[in-house]
Design brief:
The complex is a heterodimer.
Chain A: H1 2-5, H2 9-29, H3 37-50, H4 61-86, H5 91-96, H6 104-122, H7 126-137, H8 142-149, H9 153-170
Helix pairs in contact in A: 2-3, 2-4, 3-4, 7-8, 7-9
Chain B: H1 4-17, H2 28-48, H3 52-59, H4 63-86, H5 100-119, H6 131-153, H7 161-180, H8 190-219
Helix pairs in contact in B: 2-4, 4-5, 4-7, 6-7, 6-8, 7-8
The chains are: A mainly alpha, B mainly alpha.
């Protein structure tokens, strides 16, 4: 660490790599879940980096690192505690949860809805349809769409807004 | 999927690339002495324009008078020592308890002085309209001392930023209350003490609010 304080990069990287198993042991000792141990390791390494000027060579490096690792592990436990009050980790329940809007009738409506939209787009002027197809259906940026169509971004933007207005009116003000 | 060992290795390499030589922090004891030296210079400047002899005669009237001053002075020294210890990442939060005995002495002696002033005639009663001067003095002296202390504490890396700021605030407020004796030649009356306590609490809260945020932003 003394070499690292002096700016020796190779010594510093070796030291940090050697610290990782020790930090993992400390985190496990504090009761950190296995999937969160890497977070504690990374937080501790970042703290070591930003607090390296505070290390006193007359004191034990292991004690210095151990206190920082324990503190970061406690921060991790607090973070998990706060998350638990708002969120539940239940992957099976998530996978098996039925979608209330996923009925067959609604699926048919969705297909119909898409067809209505497609038909409305087909009725747009050529320039407006070009803007919608490139900017919305192909998710291109204004610059990409301008290159693809050979038009200016300003012209595309104007036709895009006109197309939205027309579609909004034709679909009866619905999304 | 990125393996965690790869992530660790990438972080180590990134930190290595970011490495610059650092000037090692001076020991906390030395940093306390530096802060106390500046405080001593302020005290000396105030002593030049005040009647120190009158202050000593006033403090010697009763033991609680000089015990209260001793208590506030010790609180300032010990709270500053605790704040500098807490500014290091490997120090425990229990360092914040260091100034408590001196704080108890300060509060107790001030309380006894207040009772004495209430039960017997005051030797040096305070004229009306002076209390707000005490308030402004404590807050006015605490502010620059706090700014200086926060700048010095930021050189460290506290993992207890709020506690560090509160302890530092106590150091500055008690130092200001000690210096107040130089320009405050009156006995301790209840209203006067209440104003002192109010000013000290305001100074500590301001430190906790602003100093804590500054120190916290450094450690995030």
């Amino acid at each position: 660490m003394v070499a690292a304080q002096a700016g020796d990069r190779a010594a510093y990287e070796t030291l940090l790599r050697d610290c990782i198993p020790f930090i993992k042991r400390v985190a496990r000792g504090q009761g950190i879940r296995p999937d969160l141990i890497d977070d504690v390791v990374q937080e501790t390494l970042l703290t070591v980096h930003r607090a390296r000027q505070t290390y006193d060579p007359n004191r034990s490096f292991t004690a210095w690192l151990g206190t920082i690792a324990r503190r970061r592990a406690i921060d991790g436990l607090r973070r998990v505690g706060r998350t638990r009050t708002r969120e539940v980790y239940a992957p099976l329940a998530y996978e098996n949860h039925s979608d209330p809007s996923g009925s067959p009738d609604e699926a048919v409506f969705d297909i119909g809805h898409t067809e209505v939209l497609r038909s409305a787009i087909d009725k747009l002027s050529v320039r407006q349809r070009e803007a919608v197809e490139h900017l919305a259906l192909q998710s291109q940026s204004l610059a990409q769409a301008a290159t693809a169509t050979g038009r200016s971004t300003g012209s595309l933007r104007v036709d895009w807004h006109r197309a939205l207005k027309t579609l909004y009116a034709r679909l009866g003000g619905k999304d | 999927m990125i393996h965690s060992d790869d992530l660790d290795d990438r972080l180590v390499q990134a930190l290595g690339a970011d490495l610059t030589p650092v000037r090692r922090l001076a020991p906390p004891g030395l940093r306390v002495l530096m802060w106390l030296a500046i405080l001593g210079a302020v005290a000396l400047a105030l002593a030049m324009v005040s009647d120190v002899g009158a202050m000593i005669r006033r403090l010697m009237v009763a033991p609680d008078m000089w015990l209260a001053v001793m208590g506030s002075m010790l609180t300032a020294v010990l709270a500053a020592a605790a704040a500098f210890q807490l500014s290091l990442p490997d120090r425990k939060a229990t360092w914040a308890l260091l100034p408590l005995p001196a704080l108890v002495l300060w509060i107790s002696a001030s309380g006894i002085g207040c009772l004495r002033a209430w039960s017997v005639a005051e030797a040096y009663p305070m004229p009306p309209g002076q209390t707000e001067h005490c308030l402004f003095f404590i807050l006015g002296v605490s502010l620059p001392l706090s700014l200086l202390l926060i700048v010095m504490l930021r050189r460290g890396f506290s993992l207890h930023p709020n506690l560090t700021a509160i302890t530092g605030g106590l150091a500055c407020a008690s130092a200001a209350a000690t210096l107040l004796n130089l320009i405050h030649p009156y006995d301790a009356a209840a209203a006067d003490l209440a104003i002192h306590a109010f000013a000290v609490v305001i100074a500590i809260l301001a430190n906790a609010l602003f100093g804590g945020r500054i120190l916290m932003s450094d450690t995030r």
